[in-house]
Amino acid sequence: MILIVEDDVRLNQALCRLFAGAGYMVTGAHSIKEALLISGAALVIIDIGLPDGDGFALCRQIRRTGSTPVIFLTARDDERDMIQAFDCGADDYLVKPFPLAVLLKHAQAVLRRARQEDLELFCYEELRIDFARKQVKCNGTKVRLTPKEYGLLELLARNKGKVITKQMMLEQLWDETGAFVEENTVNVALSRLKKKIEADPSHPVYIKNVFGLGYTLGES
Questions:
Q1: Which among 183, 107, 95, 189 is positioned nearest to 148, based on CA atoms?
Q2: CB atoms closer than 10 angstroms to residue 23
Q3: Per-residue confidence at 178, pLDDT binned at 50, 70, 90?
Q4: What residues are paired with 214 via a beta bridge?
């Protein structure tokens, strides 16, 4: 769903018709207050001048709660406004007047980039893994992992809900050179990983032992 935040009623309606005609679900809002009552947007298009504040404030609010793409659509062509928009988290900035077809293409490009980024981001409960940056956060706190610990976590995350045996872990993470590695090496790495991401390793939320088979992240 695309959210249009524009206080000019006619323009808001025109933009809604544009995206609806292109096959998108779309909702219009005329103020920050209205916009904040609407959830689930895949893209937000914002005017800077709004009756109850400016679009910068709304963009910062969106960034505090998630990563929904934002496009500014405004008559302001001052360089300072453009810089401020990108500083508060904008993905694109278009100056009025503009061809509607150009806006549609910009929106489609931003949505494509967002989908590609989503493929590189794993979220489960309070666990966040950025595969592209190899960064892990749990309960909002960055978790520092060794390369092998991260490798184990990524292997489990990319196979969410599937059982991964210790043999599979050995083959994919330790046996690149064909050197013999004891199974206990996997046990030690898993134990250390659990201590770093589980609030109570004896009652894990994320990495669970499937008795006699292996381990899984998430429900199997």
A1: 189
A2: 6
A3: very low
A4: 210
**pLDDT one-digit tens code per residue, 75-107:** 999 999 999 999 999 999 999 988 999 999 999
Q: Label residues 154-169 b or e (16+ Cβ within 10 Å = b).
A: bbbbeeeeeebebebb
Half-sphere exposure of residue 21: CA atoms within 13 angstroms, side-chain side: 9
Hunting for tokens 């004896």 — which residue is that? 202
